[in-house]
Amino acid sequence: MKTITLTPQSPSVLFFKDAPSSQNSRPRIGTDDGISNRGMNILLIIFMMLTVGLAVASATGSDDVKMRILLRQSMLDIEQLRYHEAVPKLMELLAKDPDNANASYLLGICHLYGTRNFHQAAFYLDRASSSTSHGYENWDLEERNAPVQTYYLLATAWEQAGDDDRAAVAYEHYIVQLTGDEAKKVSPRIMNMVRQNMANARLRHNDLGIETATTRY
């Protein structure tokens, strides 16, 4: 946007450039033309506010478009298994929008299946798990939540990292989110891991004299 620089001039120069040079014949602001110095200042302030507002709106709109492009390109990269190419795009998106659970979810997938940095995958999937939704819309550029599947992938990341306890907790969160029919499809291995982890947790809590609630699967 072109910047307009206002140079300090008297109101008479701005509005009456063709006026005679004589002091007696020169119109005076606030008398002849009906515009007071105060009114002129208000007009200048309004003009400056409008200029700044338009500049901010333009910058914001430009950022929004850029973020949409980054998200769309990241999705295409992931679909074509170009995980390494999606990582910097998603990192840039999260730098601008750190609360975007969908971006954290996608970045977790990139580390889980691409870089195979399982601790990084768990980090981003754990962030994404704070905002999951059953109504998750894939390929929707307005989507800011993560799918319920995030818990399953988080458990997978922890299991690959060798932390079975955290994996079991994430699997348990995943199972709790499922409906009755969906829960029946969970593999016996995962169910056994969850049950074993719950049993271990009860033993640890009982040793500390803490009473725990029992969840049945």
Give an overview in words.
With about 220 residues, this protein is mostly helical. The protein has one domain (about 35-135, about 140-205): Serine Threonine Protein Phosphatase 5, Tetratricopeptide repeat. It has nine helices and two strands. It has helices at about 10-15, 35-80, 85-95, 100-115, 120-130, 150-160, 165-175, 180-185, 190-205; strands spanning about 130-135, 145. Strands 1-2 form a two-stranded parallel sheet. α6 (about 150-160) runs antiparallel to α7 and α7 packs across α9 (about 190-205). The longest helix has about 45 residues, at about 35-80. The termini are far apart. About 25% of the residues are buried.
Write the layout of secondary structure elements.
Layout lengths: L10 H5 L21 H43 L3 H14 L4 H15 L2 H11 L3 E2 L12 E2 L1 H12 L3 H14 L2 H5 L3 H20 L10
Parallel strand pairs: 1-2
Give a quick precis of the structure:
The protein is 64% helix and 2% strand. The protein is mainly alpha-helical and 217 residues long.
